[in-house]
Amino acid sequence: MSGGTGHTGTSPQTPPAPAARSERTSRIRRVLIVVFVLNVVVATAKLGYGLRTSSVAMSADGLQSFLDGTANIVGLAGIAVAARPPDEQHHFGHQRYETLASMVIAMMMAVSVIEILRGAVGQLARGGTPRVDSGSFAVLGCSICINLGVAIWERRKARELTSDFLSADSKHTLSDVAVSIGVIGGLIAVRLGFETADALLSLVIAGIIGWAAWTIVRDASMVLTDATAINPRALMEAILHTEGVETAHKLRSRSMGGQMLVEVDITVDPLLRVDQAHDVTTRVESSVRNVAGRFAQTIIHVEPAIEPHTRPDELFGDVTIDR
After folding, report:
1. What values do phi and psi take at 192, rounded to 5?
2. Average pLDDT estimate for 95-116
3. CATH assignment of the domain containing 101
4. Domain of 144?
5. 9-44 pLDDT tens trace
6. CB proximity list for 305: less than 8 A, separation 6 or greater
7. Which one, of 105, 102, 103, 81, lies nearest residue 21 by Cα?
8. Torsion of CA 207, 211, 216, 221, to 10 degrees
């Protein structure tokens, strides 16, 4: 074998990319619809009771839950756009719109932080104490149970479907749980005679929401700037362990819409026929998916195992295996 050849594709064990993406989109959509309904129920209860009892903290918590529901609508729109096939302007597809949708969640959370701070400062300036009764604790207790269940379920689905948006939304929902627990503490403090506890706690709530928003922006920016989401040395080791691979270099990986994209140059025995070299790349694809997930796509360039093609990788040349 002489020269080089490029190869990309999917193995027989993996569904064709369009079918797999369509299945993934449908499953994410179903998750978001269920979460949206639950968020509306929780938000209505908390905001309604918060306004009734003049509790800034509970009203702020209810506003946060309504933003969760709005975020689900944004997610449904983002997922629909991300599922579109490649076109003349987007040759690699639209998957990053899912990541952009998660950034919208962070912006909405920033808006809620501003509103909560305004309400808390206003109550501290005006004075006044919210009315605390058993209904307040019942509403918050039920909302904590629902939101905790939603956050755990959504996080599990985010990992299963490798969804940036579901991961961001689960953080948003989990921040609701922390906020509701804090509100209960504030209402107990008010009942014990600390009249400003409700407003002061709202400032803490704003800080919790702000931190959650920052983590979403941080994670989304990693995807949008082509940062890798897997251990590249583990990936290089898996490739080198693949039968027929002599050396590997120019390994690069990035994530896009829950999918890992991997590029690598490998060297093989220069006496192999083209069909035999193709079989090696198929085995490399399987090795990559074992590390990067079943939706991973690879671009593999095959070269003969002679100098200068056997040079080590510039970034991960320290990875070696025993043959």
Report:
1. -85, 0
2. 83
3. 1.20.1510.10
4. 17-224
5. 444 444 445 666 778 888 999 999 999 998 888 888
6. 246, 247, 267, 268, 269, 270
7. 81
8. 120
